[in-house]
Amino acid sequence: MEGDKTTDNGDDYYKNVKLVGFVKTDSETLPGYKNEAFQWSSADNLSSYPSSYPREHDILASSKVLGGDTVVPVDQDSVNRCCTRKVLYKRLPILQWLPKYTVGEHGISDLVAGITVGLTVIPQAIAFANVAGLPPQIGLYSSFMACFVYTIFGSCKDPALGPTAIMAIMTRENIHDMGPEFAILLCFITGIVQLIMGFAQLGFLIDFISGPVSAGFTSAAAIVIATSQLKDLLGINIKASSFIGFWDQLAMHIREISVGDGTLGITCMVVLLLLRKMKDIQIGPTDMKDKTTGQRTVSSIIWLISTARNIIVVVFCAALGYMYKEHGNLPFKLSSHVESGLPSFRPPPFESRVGNETYNFVEMASKLGSGILVVPLLSILENISLAKFFSDGKTVDATQEMLALGACNLISSFVGSMPISGALSRGAVNNASGVKTTFGGVYTGIIVIIALQFFTPYLVYIPKAALAAVIIAAVVFMVELQVVKPMWRTKKIDLIPAFATFLCSLLIRLEVGIVVGIAINVIILLYTLARPSVHVEKQQSEFGYEYLVITPDRSLVFPSVEYVRAVVSKAGLKQGLSSIPVVMDCRHIQGADFTAAKGVKSLIDDFVRRSQPLVFYNVKPSVISIFQGVRPTEFNCCVTEQQLHERLKGYYYSRMQTLTL
């Protein structure tokens, strides 16, 4: 719209005024802005408008001149709402708890939790790097920067961000053995995608990954991860790109199993599982208040040993590896060399050379394929699920978690990280350690930095079988067999996407499995939307006349309208004998669309042609306006039960008079 008139101000301000949208006020929109034929005139007097409307001088003051055309600003209130203290505190959660932070109430608990998680993450990080097919130091690089970033942006205290089993196996499946540069770029792109989703508030996309799909995917991923570690556990060299291919290769190389690796690996697994169970040992009374000082001390020691089981086993095996290597007789394989020192802070690689071929950014992103979308989604799902698990009934700000996770991945990529997320195992350790704020992550990050700076020369002595045992002992509990019975008892159809996701993830590829599961879920959702349940019941009034009550169980939208029309028409013909009135109870119809309105119009025409009364009852006013918008032949609508019975009584007496004549 453009105006061609000037105001009394004596300037050409309103010449070529371009109205780019509505100027929103507290509750209304400035009259005239909605009218496409609107032309601004000097005769217009804004003083007659309510006080909430902007005056001429307000518009003049806030306008912007671009290339001779004046652009009226749009929705300035929304801009102002984005720049408030409340939004600042929401997007920087550290500002909420830092002023109240005390050493006695928060500091000690965060210190204990941070150190405990740090001792847990070091062996896991090295092992997860092995799962991803990357050098061990990449796992450690992925474990410290996110801790500092999440301290500032994280809205939940329990998630311990870093490499996870799911992120490791997804990285391996998407970089196709192309090297660390591709994993680092995947981390960078993951952060960018997550930030875009956070700013665009696309968290609802996570809701399309249902519980059954998530369970099937997680279970398949756990089996794939455990399978990939069997070669190190048994000390054999196998290269296979698929689950079935691995077992085929294992059968061919079964005679090459190393006794030393196999014995050490299985022993480590048994010890890890026993130490995990050790925390359930009850010392003294159940209530901590009733325990003696000695009983509390023993319980704490047992819990600490159980929690730090990974680092205990890895350190013991590393000492064993050092002793054997010094004597020149190694019965098992040791880890590869780990680069010492901290990584340099630099942009992720946008170009990579693999063999004799050089890849630019576009080619690298193309090689990563669907991973640039699937990995960010799974990372968000994993972290938000963890946050909800430990939220104690509090609301989790999914948008803020997406922004925090995106920032963590983005900044971590500058120190050579692979994609990261919140790990359930470390989150459980964090929670059990009594963490109070996200500041516990600072201590975790410091522990990892110390390990990188001073202890990397000793990591080469860690046996591969021990790291494989750490991974297998962790992921074996990710197989969610316990959800099958509840699904069978509640809604058996949910087993279809669960098993489809599981089988496709296991036998084809993980991302294919989750896409198939989501597709099946959407198909089921669309089917239930297109085929609503329609309850038909014949009732009799106190005056003795009969009528049919037909009740759809959900809103009328275009996929379902023809089905509902067919059911109502069929019921009117067969059960209504083409004569008795039909009452369509619309109490569950919260909305409708144009196609639904056209279908209702056709339904009314069907009943009018056979002179059978059709009455709509309990219709929402918004739905009435939609139905009347297509101008049906007649639209009989009753709001109250008394109106309904009066109308039915009128139909009954009219019919009796017709029959008498």
Automatic annotation (TrEMBL):
One family name in Pfam for this protein: Sulfate_transp
Domain SLC26A/SulP transporter: 109-500
Listed GO biological process terms: transmembrane transport
One GO CC term on file: membrane
Transmembrane portions of the chain: 182-206, 257-275, 301-324, 368-390, 402-420, 440-460, 465-484, 496-529
Locations listed in the record: Membrane
Keywords recorded for this protein, A-Z: Membrane, Transmembrane, Transmembrane helix
Name listed for the protein in its UniProt record: SLC26A/SulP transporter domain-containing protein
